[in-house]
């Protein structure tokens, strides 16, 4: 009996063209091979082979990432856009909806602050009155 693997999610289906690779992967592999060969042929007269191999790896790595890396259904270029937006984009989020509880909270806060200010003024007034009374008492007492 012939068995066929059917993915549970239709969006996970990938059409395979050649050697089990998708069209995107084939294009990236062809570009990687062309870039590596051209770089090697041009660079072998200028740089030693050891250094040239490292240069080719660093050149080809972004194409390999674009062709083969996927994370949460996003390709490499979408991941890079998300990372750049996260670190460089606007970090502040606007509040688009303020519930009426915040308005009530602000009004209650204003009332409490006004009451605290009035209480503090009354305390300062009482302290000044007390200081005046002390001065008067000291001035009236005869010195011995």
Explained architecture:
The chain has helices at residues 23-43, 49-68, 76-88, 100-140, and strands at residues 70-71, 74-75. With 144 residues, the protein is mainly α. The protein folds into 2 domains: 14-87, no CATH class; 106-144. A two-stranded antiparallel sheet has the order 1-2. Helix 1 runs antiparallel to helix 2 (49-68). It is elongated. The N and C termini lie far apart (124 Å). The mean pLDDT is 83.
How would you summarize what this structure contains?
With 144 residues, the protein is mainly alpha-helical.
Structure annotation, total helices: 4
Q: How many structural domains? A: 2
DSSP summary, beta strand count: 2
Helix and strand element order? HHEEHH
**Major sheet: size, sense and barrel closure?**
2 strands, antiparallel
First-last Cα distance: 124 Å
- If you average the pLDDT, what whole number results? 83
Which terms summarize this structure?
two-stranded antiparallel sheet, 2 domains, 2 strands
Question: What is the secondary structure topology, with strand pairs?
Answer:
Blueprint: H1 23-43, H2 49-68, E1 70-71, E2 74-75, H3 76-88, H4 100-140
Antiparallel strand pairs: 1-2
Helix pairs in contact: 1-2
């Amino acid at each position: 009996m012939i068995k066929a693997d059917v993915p549970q999610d239709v969006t996970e289906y990938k059409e395979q063209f050649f050697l089990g690779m998708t069209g995107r992967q084939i294009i990236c592999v062809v570009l990687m091979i062309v870039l590596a060969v051209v770089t090697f042929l041009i660079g072998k007269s200028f740089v030693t082979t050891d250094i040239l191999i490292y240069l080719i790896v660093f050149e080809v790595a972004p194409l390999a990432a674009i062709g083969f890396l996927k994370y949460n259904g996003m390709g490499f270029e979408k991941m890079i856009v998300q990372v750049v937006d996260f670190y460089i984009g606007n970090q502040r989020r606007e509040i688009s909806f303020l519930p009426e509880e915040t308005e009530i909270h602000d009004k209650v806060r204003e009332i409490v602050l006004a009451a605290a200010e009035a209480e503090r003024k009354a305390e300062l007034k009482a302290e000044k009155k007390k200081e005046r009374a002390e001065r008067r008492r000291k001035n009236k007492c005869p010195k011995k």
